[in-house]
């Protein structure tokens, strides 16, 4: 897992305390996602698909597979602006900054101040 993130998303360091789901083929990780558990919510982080497999539906498939986990506790993500449509197609909605829980809001504001081009989103369980 660590090697996969180092290769495809170096800032997405896996934390053993957070659940991580993967899609593998022939023992090789193709896609992964991590859910950081917070006090009253969770943050979808480090959603990564290996470049040769992007735009093949693996990310959507992975999110469908963890639907139960996503709806158990309010789940948020900070989507890169160019990925907002992907998350909307996968049951996330855009959330205004004042509507974010404090523990998420402070992270979001900090990331924006660092210059990250992100949009706060929340999983909407159907």
Automatic annotation (TrEMBL):
CDD domains in the cross-refs: NAT_SF
Gene3D superfamilies attached to this UniProt entry: 3.40.630.30
First and last residue of the signal peptide: none
Name of the protein described by the UniProt record: GNAT family N-acetyltransferase
Organism annotation: Marinomonas sargassi
InterPro entries according to UniProt: Acyl_CoA_acyltransferase, GNAT_dom
A UniProt-annotated Pfam family: Acetyltransf_7
The N-acetyltransferase domain, residue ranges: 1-126
UniProt superkingdom: Bacteria
Organism classification: Bacteria, Pseudomonadati, Pseudomonadota, Gammaproteobacteria, Oceanospirillales
């Amino acid at each position: 897992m660590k090697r996969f993130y180092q290769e495809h998303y170096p800032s997405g360091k896996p934390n053993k305390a957070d659940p991580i789901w993967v899609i593998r083929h022939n023992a090789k990780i193709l896609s992964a996602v991590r859910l950081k558990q917070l006090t009253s919510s969770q943050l979808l982080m480090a959603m990564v698909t290996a470049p040769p497999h992007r735009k093949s539906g693996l990310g959507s498939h992975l999110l469908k597979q963890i639907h139960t986990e996503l709806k158990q506790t309010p789940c948020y993500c900070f989507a890169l602006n160019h990925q907002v449509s992907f998350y909307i197609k996968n049951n996330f909605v855009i959330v205004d900054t004042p509507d974010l829980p404090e523990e998420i809001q402070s992270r979001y504001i900090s990331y924006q101040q660092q210059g990250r081009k992100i949009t706060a989103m929340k999983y909407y369980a159907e």
